[in-house]
Request: fold
Amino acid sequence: MKHLLDNLPKLNEWLKRRDQPGFRAPQVIDWIFQKRISDFSAMSNLPASLRELLAAEFETLTSTIVTHSTSDDGTEKLLLRLQDGGVVECVLLREENRRTICVSSQVGCAMGCVFCASGLDGVLRNLTAGEILEQMLLLQRLLPADERLSHIVMMGMGEPLANLDNVLRALDWASSPEGLGISARRITISTVGLPAAIQRMARIDCKYQLAISLHAPNDELRTRLVPVNEKIGIEALLAAADQFFAASGRKLTFEYVLLQVINDHESHAHELVELLKHRTVLLNVIPYNPVEGLPFKTPSNRSIAQFKEILQSAGIEIRFRQRKGDKINAACGQLRRQQMVELS
Ligand code: SAH
Reply:
């Protein structure tokens, strides 16, 4: 079966070849994105014969929900098995009137950040644009009819900039009015920091927000935590980030996972100030979400507050991401990891 979501750009052509009028493709797209209907047989304004033709060739949702967990704070997480057996996760977060989804871009991850659950077993493959979009639709369908998705973060499993073409194809549908209609300003692509891909985003005038996972203020420490840094270096990363900022004019976000003793010292905060003080950035500090089997710890509230104080008094704009859904292992890769451990 073909994945309809991977064939949306060809749908018009496919329908034309079957002598269908030009308004059929927009009708199908309207059912899927606006009416939240995936089953062709329920698309009541299409002729029955066409519904059968579509159903014989395409599937809209191709993955199986392995687990669906809900936590007290309203966070819901899906563990999905793809057609080829690959497993990915995606999350719906509820915060006041925000309905944010966190979506995966790859099965596993090749970046190997030492504190992250997603990369522990390497990468199996890139997700197709359809598989990325499918996560968004499955999460959309968890909402009551009068609620809409408001934000997307590409912060699930995988490195989105290592699969940029498919990520951008999926986000085109997420941001277009015929698709999910989510403003590009509310869509964030989070990256470990691959300069060539960041430069490409600057060149193509990419309209989404960029968040860069910095996690350390110097190369020695960053290479220990984020091994791909060895071949990149903070200087080249910041140069690419500056290029993106110059091209887009939009404030960049840097992410910093606080790991007890490792990168939460006062001296780290001061070094970070030096890197960021002349840049228009938002620093997103994330207290570590512990991963079973890994030796890292969340810092104490006191050292988190101290870290925050040093950056704030230096005039760096800073935000603390609240931990949400940690009871259901909502941090990237944790649920899949847990399942792999249980199965092995
Ligand atoms: N590959 C992308 C997306 C990864 S997930 C990237 O590197 O940005 C989004 C963020 O969560 C990244 O900053 C990542 O480093 C961070 N992260 C990974 N594991 C974490 C954990 N256990 N606790 C807190 N943050 C974590």
